[in-house]
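USER: Study each token:
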Amino acid sequence: MIEPPALSWNDRRLYRHGVPHQILSGALHYFRVHPRLWRDRLQRLGDLGLNTVDTYVPWNFHQPREDTAPHFDGWHDLEEFVRTAGDEGLDVIVRPGPYICAEWSNGGLPSWLTGRDVALRSSDPAFTGAVAPWFDDLIPRIAGLQAAAGGPVVAVQVENEFGSYGDDQAYVRWNHTALVDRGITELLFTADGPTDLMLDGGTLPGTLTAATLGSKPGPARELLATRRPDEPFVVAEFWNGWFDHWGEKHHVRGVDSAVRTLGGIIEDGGSVSIYMAHGGTNFGLWAGANERDGRLQPTVTSYDSDAPIAEDGSLTPKFHAMRAVLGATAPLRVSARLPVLPAARLPLEHRSDLLASLRAVPAPTTSGPRPASFERLGLDAGIALLRAYPRIPTGDHQLTVTDVRDRALVFADGTPLGTVTPENPSLRVRGTGAIVRLDLLVESLGRVNYGPALGGHKGVLGPVLIDRRTVQGWECTPVALQEWSSESLQSALSAGPPTTGTGFAVATFSVDEPADTFLALPGSGRGLAWVNGFLLGRYWDIGPQLTLYCPGPLLRPGLNTVTILELERLGGVLELCTEPSLGPPEEYIEEFD
């Protein structure tokens, strides 16, 4: 006999096992928090006054390559995260996608899938046929942790804000059926923005409709009541903060504004999930991007999101104000902040030059008449090295890299010529009539995670021109930085001696007891940082983020090593800071028109 679902509704009221109930949830993504900090962060959610935690499941994080089975161990152990939440007395809502948005690379879809000619997020069998085996592995793991089986999972989301993307109702129904057929018996729901357009595209008859919003809960409540008069008001995402893009300001949401909107949601029995309750970090190269008016807006490494629980777990003024609105009165179980290392200023030792170091790490090379895209190279994120040998006539000429995604550093016989971007794709090059070794270092800044540009390809997607003549005959090498081992880093560091102001550098420091710290690189331009072989993320002096959060579990007693890959100009020092620097703030509230 199948147990009835833990959550049900009737006459606009939500019930848990027949007792009136409000979902007071907070979003916390296990893939953005070090596993040894999962319990700490979950306890902080409980102290906030929440009874539920919700998380997305990013497919590409678990299965970055098609030829390998999905990973569910270590940092990928979704089941352990769910069990830990249950141990802390929290219900769990799981949002398995397959598309998750989340400001995560490619919206969670694997680039090996989006690199094909397939209609994404549709009932195209080429898409659903790829999702099905992923769900075959994932969904039974969630089903085994449902409340009916004694676990903490009380609800599962169908797709994710589909009404913001398309209107293929057959696809939404396919997702619902796929969850039920694989064992989901708890509450199923959809989540969309509170407009008729979005609700028409994303909702299903008989399936609870939830809203996503940043403000104006009153009109959203009224709209959903007219469309679903028997259903309770549930906000699956309340945006109490917002994420940041490189080169823009740090988005914040005022405490009074956030608390006022939260109060408006939960009044009269409304349910909510605070997005984000704790944002965490886009470690490695997992940060996504937006595209507006054809211009890429890459997301920063921090996913602090001005959440009530900060990126490093600190309890903010927003935490205490929200806790009061949520009615939490129990003593706090956690400290206001975890320990941090003392501030320090460390010299950076430049070890190897940029091109030589990247080419020192073995990788397969593909040859052909045109540049190979990241997708042709099997490269999800990182850098592609492209090399050709054109003859450039004597005099000044224009070199154009058409349709570059997202940036390329250009070298002639090892000498840097400059950077090309979609906005500025051309450089002047002076020829002597001789053959030139032309190198392009092509960098992805993050795959688009939202909107019609989802699934876009990376690399040089058009011809490279000298004046009007196409450069042909390319050697293309992937540099899969996110997959590099400690041995790969050592190979890159050993490619010296350095003669330029870019490439790899290291700094070392010793600690008696590991603790949190924040890394800053004053004087450096743009690049990546590893801590003890773990790729922490991207830094960039255009901000707004100027420090990288390094959680204590990444450090060890004794000697620790920070490795830097600098693409523009290497400064001389690495700073360990006691506070984050996320940039000048800008008040921001996302609203639907």
